[in-house]
């Protein structure tokens, strides 16, 4: 599975780990359960841990924008994204719909940096 999630109720962070470029079916099978748990716990800080280089096709970017961005906009107040440096420029374009909604979004090279920022 390309996406796994963990809910940290102590620190109030929902983390989605992406092991490879996901497709829409990955999002649909993993996000709803994570969203339910985060909502029940009142968690609005998210961390997206991207272990792949960057989005690789227009179809996958559309899937992200149509499904994931809508979900993120509804539930998140603060979003940290950890991804390889070479993916930052293109990923920023993908995250633009979330940023445009006034969400606090930052990108980092490591999960540790991202978690540290979320906990401030």
Q: What would you note in describing this structure?
A:
- The chain has 120 residues and is an alpha/beta fold.
- It has a single domain (3-118), classed as Transcription Regulator spoIIAA (2-Layer Sandwich).
- The protein is 47% helix and 23% strand.
- It has helices spanning 24-41, 58-75, 88-99, 111-118, and strands spanning 3-8, 13-18, 45-50, 78-82, 104-108.
- Strands 1-2-3-4-5 form a five-stranded mixed beta sheet, sandwiched between helices.
- Strand 2 (13-18), helix 1 and strand 3 (45-50) form a beta-alpha-beta unit.
> Strand pairing plus helix content: what structural class?
alpha/beta
Mean pLDDT, to the nearest integer, reads: 83
Which band does the percent of strand residues land in?
A: 15-25%
Q: List the total number of helices.
A: 4
Strand adjacency order, main sheet:
1-2-3-4-5
Q: Let me know the largest β-sheet.
A: 5 strands, mixed
